[in-house]
Amino acid sequence: METFDLDDIRAARERIKDKVRRTPLLRNATLSERLGTNVYLKIEIFQKTGSFKVRGAFNKALTLTEAERNVGLVAVSGGNHAQAVAYVAREMGIPAVILMPKNAPATSMDATRGYGAEVMVMETVHEAFAKVADYQQRGWTFLHPFDDAKVMAGQGTIGLEILDDLPEVTDVFASIGGGGMFGGVATAIKSVKPEVKVYGVETVGANCMRLAFDAGHPVTIPAITSIAKTLGAPSASEATFALAKKYAESLEVMTDAEAMAAVRLILERAKILVEPAAGCTLAAAQRLKSRFTPDSHVVLVICGGNFGLDDLCR
């Protein structure tokens, strides 16, 4: 896979600036008091389609040739990436097919279809990835959810916005999943301020990066059992694994119960409903609060909010 750097992330910001929202970074008084420091939420749930994923999807799609656009995009996702690719395809007039595992939330499938993409339901995410080759042989462009330099550079624009809005940032917590957003954000932040600590966060049952760290190489999870389905990459890639090894201060693996307690706290005190995949960042920051001082400036990347009220009640 081609590599990317800070210049590529800056180019991505210029490329997608008219296509995505610049999301707010807000200090939260309650969370700051609980953690004994300054806590900020980077609220990507206010991004188009409800998550950060459109950043990378637009950055990739906008680099395609006219011939590639005329054929179409194919993607694999059980949630946020599916909606992002469908939305990007609609906005750019590109055909799109999204291969989704049958256990993907019905709300995600409905939203993906609502953006105009064709949804193909597969037995598992592994079968979905295997099916991609059929489309690639016919000239379709595979828009990978994380293992793509342009996708990661697009996600890295979150890091640039954090640095612009909070130059004094000391710590950043980002969900890691397959590692694309973490890799992009960490590259942006550490390239400008190497002293900033960037933590990766996963949940038990969706912890492919922790398992890769333990094994010394990417490994495949047979099934995603965590409630945090949007962290459900079957494995990290060689590229995202390398970036996590290079930049992660630590990897924190939280339980579903810890993630959901954080979702509830954020809803009650920040008045936003976030996914467990985002709530787990608060859970991790609470676990590590002894590392912060009153002068620390801690950012939680609230990566997505595609989590319905029915999901919360259940």
Helix proportion of residues, in percent? 40-55%
β-strand percent reads: 15-25%
What is the N-to-C succession of helices and strands?
HEHEHHEHEHEHEHHEHEHHEHHEH
Assigned CATH architecture of the largest domain: 3-Layer(aba) Sandwich
The count of strands amounts to 10
Detail the poorly predicted runs: none
The quaternary structure here is single chain
Largest sheet: 6 strands, mixed
Whole-number tally of structural domains: 2
Q: How far do the termini sit from each other?
A: 40 Å
Structural class: alpha/beta
> Which fold name corresponds to the CATH topology of the largest domain?
Rossmann fold
Radius of gyration from the CA trace? 18 Å
CATH class of the largest domain: Alpha Beta
Q: Globular, elongated, flat, extended or rod-shaped: what is the shape?
A: globular
Task: Explain how this protein is built.
It is a single chain. The protein is of the alpha/beta class and 314 residues long. The chain folds into two domains: 6-52 and 150-313, Rossmann fold (3-Layer(aba) Sandwich), CATH 3.40.50.1100; 54-147, Rossmann fold, CATH 3.40.50. Helices cover 47% and strands 16% of the residues. The protein is built from 15 helices and ten strands. A six-stranded mixed β-sheet has the order 1-2-10-7-8-9, sandwiched between helices. A four-stranded parallel β-sheet has the order 5-4-3-6, with helices on both faces. Strand 7, helix 10 (180-192) and strand 8 (197-203) form a beta-alpha-beta unit. Helix 5 runs parallel beside helix 6 (106-114), helix 9 (157-165) crosses helix 10 (180-192) and helix 10 runs parallel beside helix 12 (238-247). It is globular, with a radius of gyration of 18 Å. The mean pLDDT is 94.
